Amino acid sequence: MNKILKYILPASACFLAACNDIDEAGRFIDLPPITSDRVVLIEVFTGQRCKNCPDAHVIISQLEAQYPGQVVSVAVHAGGFSVPVTNTAYEGLRQPFGDDMASHRSVTEYPSGIIDGKGPLLHTDWAAAVYDALKVPALSELSVGEIVIDYNEHTLSGVVKMMPGVSAAPHLCRIVAMG
Fold it and tell me: Which of 3, 56, 59, 101 has the fewest beta carbons under 10 Å from its own?
């Protein structure tokens, strides 16, 4: 037994101290800055009782600060960690369509994110996915005018114009209405 400890203890000490040999400044790889002409959409699947979701919010805030005006996030409350709007104890945020969206997107873990239609990804993978998405050139430019929402009629109306000289295949544009 003493022979085993004689070899295992020094090896363990080397293993545990290995990170200390690397200078703090050299532990991270700086990525080249991105000049992008597009906006990345992050659909965040979250819930009010999700213990990791506040960490995801911090990551979203950091990405929005790192890429100002180029990251847009939308929170979708879904799954068992979210509180339904029908809850009488306190105000819930989960609408029925949130669970439908999560099911359609194969979301099984929270928080999860869909980055420009790709995913679901755990919040630890969002920064790399946003960086990669920003490297892809925009397919078209759209201008959105005034948007009017009528909650009583469940309608959304507005004007969307494609910029002159830009063409896009019809399958690249989609409007989805959920009631």
Answer: 3
Q: What is the dihedral of CA 36, 114, 142, 140, to 10 degrees?
A: 60
**Predicted confidence (pLDDT) per residue in 20-43, tens digit:** 666 666 666 666 777 888 889 999
- 133 pLDDT band, cuts 50/70/90, is very high
Q: Tell how strand 40-46 and strand 71-77 pair up.
A: parallel
Return the axis-axis angle of helices 126-134 and 53-66, rounded to nearest 10°.
30
Cα gap 37→60, rounded to integer Å: 20
> What phi and psi, each to the nearest 5 degrees, are found at residue 26?
-100, 5
Mean pLDDT of 147-163: 72
| Pairwise CA distance, residues 37 & 31, whole Å | 18
Tell me how far the alpha carbon of residue 62 is from its chain's centroid.
Answer: 12
Map tokens 């104890």 to a residue: 89
Integer Cα distance of 158 and 146 in angstroms: 6
Residue 5 CB partners (closer than 8 Å, separation 6+): none
Q: How far apart are CA 47 and CA 79, in angstroms?
A: 7
